[in-house]
Amino acid sequence: MMKQSHPYPAQFRKVPPELASAVVRRAEWSLCAMEHSRIGAIEFEAPGAPFHHLALPLESVPLRFGLTVDGRHQFGRNAPDMMTTIEAGAGGATMWDETYESACFYFTTGSLSAALGEAVEDTAHNVRTRVEQHAPLLVRLLRALHADAAAGQPHGTLVGDSVFVALAAQLVPRGEHRRWAARSVHEDWRVRRALEYIHARLTEPLSIAAISTAIATSPFYLNHAFRASLGLSIWQYVLRERARFGVSLMGNDRLNLTEIAMLSGFETYASFIAAVRREFGEAPARLRQSARGSGSRQ
Q: How many whole angstroms separate alpha carbon 240 and alpha carbon 232?
């Protein structure tokens, strides 16, 4: 049994140094990390890593790949809704026969524990070494993580952390968190505390891990309570409130829209545009122009 380790995503790396140029993109969230790489046909020995590894194919190309772990051979082919799973500590020969572009996600059993707010034993999760795993829901969640990374993580770790919490809940199907989710949370004091924390720091960098730690609960329970009480995920709520705050600043003609985006807590102007359009149906520039036009007619 692998010793449970604390999640330090900056240390989760698996592409060997000699193939560093093949890494297209790297991303880190609070509890997991991703390496997006494109590597030609290869066969190599990979030592066991102290973290789990989920590999998501990014191209529908006909290739054959295989793993040899503890003397057991597994072979598979690229297919929709398929992923490869390598458990922490599992090492051996790896091969594929065509150029393979993939997003590989790394996390520890400690990451699962932190996301769910419970001690997860190595025997309690579903991460087992399989070259082919048909898992449509897990694949959709991994694609969502990859999309956040490909967009440059415009909202910091907020979106990726929410996705990882959902991923953790799928990988630990019979944990204590299931009983928590069955409880009524509509009047949960933790939601009120979370709202107070968020609004006191709305324009500062926020993470689900920090919010849940501040109110002494788990990211999983906080996500579930938020949805049950408000009908929104935490990251959706934060973006909505930042968009509203940004629009409230538009009456100040001394601030340009980029400055307003930064003052509202957005990391990029593009993410500000997307959030405002989602909430108000128009881009910030159009909203400001409309407000000036209506003001001049009064």
A: 10
Query: How high is the mean pLDDT of the chain?
Result: 87
Spatial distance between the Cα atoms of 160 and 267, rounded to a whole number of angstroms: 15
Q: How many residues does the chain have?
A: 298
Give me the CATH code for the 238-296 domain, please: 1.10.10.60
Q: How far apart are CA 169 and CA 118, in angstroms?
A: 11
pLDDT band at 184 (very low <50, low <70, confident <90, very high): very low
Indicate the helix (H) or strand (E) that contains 287.
Answer: helix 284-296
Which tens digits make up the pLDDT trace of 137-171?
999 999 999 999 999 998 989 999 999 999 999 99
Q: Which two tokens stand for residue 267?
A: 């990391």
* Cβ proximity of 62 and 33 under 8 Å: no
What confidence tens digit (pLDDT) does each residue in 268-291 have?
999 999 999 999 999 999 998 887
Q: How confident is the model at residue 1 (pLDDT cuts 50, 70, 90)?
A: very low
9-136: CATH class: mainly beta
- Bridging pattern class, strands 33-39 and 100-107: antiparallel
CA distance 223 to 166: 9
Cβ-contact 2, 109 below 8 angstroms? yes
pLDDT tens by residue, 286-298: 998 887 765 544 4
Helix (H) or strand (E) segment spanning residue 90: none
Q: Are 86 and 67 in contact (CB under 8 A)?
A: yes
| pLDDT at 74 (0 to 100) | 83
pTM of the model: 0.84
Cβ contact 129:53 at 8 Å = no
Q: Token digits for 296? A: 């001049």
Torsion angle defined by CA atoms of residues 288, 294, 296 and 298, in that order, rounded to the nearest 10 degrees: -150
Q: Indicate the Cα dihedral angle 256, 261, 267, 273, nearest 10°.
A: -100
CA quadruple 185, 111, 239, 206: dihedral positive or negative? positive
Contact (CB, 8 A) for 80 and 56: no
